[in-house]
Amino acid sequence: MSKVLIVMSAADVWERTDGSAYPTGYWAEEVAAPHEKFVEAGYTVDFASPGGVLQPLDLHSADPEIAGADSAHYVAHAEKALREFGPLLKLDEVDIDDYVAVVLPGGHGPVVDLYQDADLGRLLTKADAAGKIIGAVCHGPAGLLSAVDANGDWLFAGRAMTAFTDEEEELFGTAEGAPWLLASRLRELGARHSGGPAYQQHNVRDGNLFTGQNPASSATLATDMIAALA
């Protein structure tokens, strides 16, 4: 049976420019919707993170007024999937050759750790070279920034993608005080970033790279990846 790897952040706080600590964690829908879609399609799904650390749930993703009417379903599914999987794999021990695809969900954690994680960078570089399917949603595309060569050149420069927009960050109330904004950083480093209406589903494919703008794009991300794998 083919396997898919979901790489999660290990961060539980996001340090702001004023020195305050903003609590963060995984966004339930962005973990649960891809997991659900891949399992339904017959794939085995593994979870990994830096050090094998399981970050907490971002409580915003459990609030139906923020995350929508299906938030309870996604929270329950994500918690059950993570509990049944058991301890997360340590990212530095993962062999990407064991997987047909890798998924990077969000929550703000990826802008804390995954964007500069050397183990993730090596994994993504090898995956891309092999033509494996790579998916990232919301703040997950921050993890793509880890893939740089010996000269510091970014692997995904010039590629079309989307991610949580600066407008969405402002509407969410987290733009002010952020050390950097994801969509702006992606463009600065050479990505061809596009964004759709705030908090509406928007997905972009560029070859083997699949990205989604926000939580509402999570299920479509997985569906598109599954179609490509088929």
Automatic annotation (TrEMBL):
A Pfam family this chain is assigned to: DJ-1_PfpI
Domain of life, per lineage: Bacteria
Domain DJ-1/PfpI: 29-226
InterPro entries named in the record: Class_I_gatase-like, DJ-1/PfpI, Prot/Nucl_acid_deglycase
One GO CC term, this protein: cytoplasm
A GO term for molecular function: glyoxalase III activity
GO biological process terms on file: methylglyoxal catabolic process to D-lactate via S-lactoyl-glutathione
Alphabetized UniProt keyword annotations: Lyase, Stress response
Family statement drawn from the similarity comment of this UniProt entry: Belongs to the peptidase C56 family. HSP31-like subfamily.
Protein's recorded name: Dimethylallyltransferase
Organism placement in taxonomy: Bacteria, Bacillati, Actinomycetota, Actinomycetes, Streptosporangiales
